[in-house]
Amino acid sequence: MTTASVITKETIAHFFMELQDRICQALETADGSGRFREDAWERPGGGGGRSRVLSDGGVIEKGGVGFSAVQGEATAATLKTLNLTEPANFFATGVSIVLHPRNPMVPIIHMNVRYFEMSTGQNWFGGGIDLTPHYVVDEDAKWFHHTLKTVCDRHDPAYYAQFKSWADNYFYIPHRQETRGIGGIFFDYLKPSDEAHKAALFAFVQDVGNVFAPIYTHFMAQNRNLPFSEREKNWQLLRRGRYVEFNLVWDRGTKFGLETNGRTESILMSMPPQANWVYDYQPEPDSAEQQTLSRLKKDIDWIGR
Amino acid sequence: MTTASVITKETIAHFFMELQDRICQALETADGSGRFREDAWERPGGGGGRSRVLSDGGVIEKGGVGFSAVQGEATAATLKTLNLTEPANFFATGVSIVLHPRNPMVPIIHMNVRYFEMSTGQNWFGGGIDLTPHYVVDEDAKWFHHTLKTVCDRHDPAYYAQFKSWADNYFYIPHRQETRGIGGIFFDYLKPSDEAHKAALFAFVQDVGNVFAPIYTHFMAQNRNLPFSEREKNWQLLRRGRYVEFNLVWDRGTKFGLETNGRTESILMSMPPQANWVYDYQPEPDSAEQQTLSRLKKDIDWIGR
Question: Which domain holds residue B58?
Answer without folding.
Answer: 9-294
